[in-house]
């Protein structure tokens, strides 16, 4: 009765062994590449989410102040606008520096409708959206807030009674 073969009896074809080793290495390389690409994809998504969050915060912090001023103006009724832009208690002391506020523009309503009485002094620099500014407009009855892109504002500024200073 022949003895059953042991590992020592197995003949290994050196070329087949090399092909198998190359195949295993190729699989490993592909796995490493897939892992690296997956990690890069996750990193890109995280960076995009961070940028989108920062953009949203940048615009919404300003909007809170603009909405606060619009409410205050609408409560005034037809009275003259205050000399200083109303700011919420939560707003930092420097919040007024963020805006170019021209209360006297409200008097231009007979010639310009709607007329802008307030605009962000500089465009908000944003990562994922076109940069833009908030406006406070007066239509003769009510004040309202609007977000406009910088290119749109440049085209409308004169018609809204605004004289924008260019950033240096
Ligand atoms: Zn702003």
Low-confidence stretches: none
H-E string: HEEEEH
Give the number of DSSP strands. Answer: 4
- What's the overall average pLDDT, rounded? 91
Radius of gyration: 32 Å
Structure description:
- The chain has one domain.
- 42% of the residues lie in helices and 14% in strands.
- The protein contains two helices and four strands; from the N terminus they run H-E-E-E-E-H.
- Strand 3 and strand 4 form a beta hairpin.
- The relative contact order is 0.11.
- Bound molecules: zinc ion.
- Zinc ion (ZN) binds next to strand 3.
- Zinc ion binds next to strand 3.
Secondary structure topology:
Elements: H1 14-76, E1 99-101, E2 115-120, E3 132-138, E4 143-149, H2 150-156
Antiparallel strand pairs: 1-2, 2-3, 3-4
Zinc ion binds at residues 62, 98, 120, 124, 133-134.
């Amino acid at each position: 009765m022949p003895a059953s073969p042991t590992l020592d009896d197995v003949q290994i074809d050196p070329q087949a062994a090399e092909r198998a080793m190359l195949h295993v290495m190729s699989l490993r390389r592909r796995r490493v590449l897939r892992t690296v690409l997956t990690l890069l994809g996750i990193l890109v998504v995280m960076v995009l989410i961070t940028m989108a969050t920062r953009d949203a915060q940048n615009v919404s912090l300003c909007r809170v102040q603009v909405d606060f001023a619009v409410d205050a103006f609408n409560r005034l009724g037809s009275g003259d606008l205050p000399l200083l832009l109303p700011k919420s208690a939560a707003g930092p002391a420097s919040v007024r520096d963020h805006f170019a506020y021209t209360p006297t523009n409200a008097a231009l309503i007979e010639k310009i409708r709607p007329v802008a009485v307030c605009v962000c002094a500089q465009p908000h620099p944003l990562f994922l959206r076109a940069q833009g500014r908030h406006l406070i407009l007066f239509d003769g009855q009510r004040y309202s807030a609007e977000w406009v892109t910088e290119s749109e504002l440049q085209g409308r500024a004169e018609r809204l009674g605004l004289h924008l200073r260019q950033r240096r």
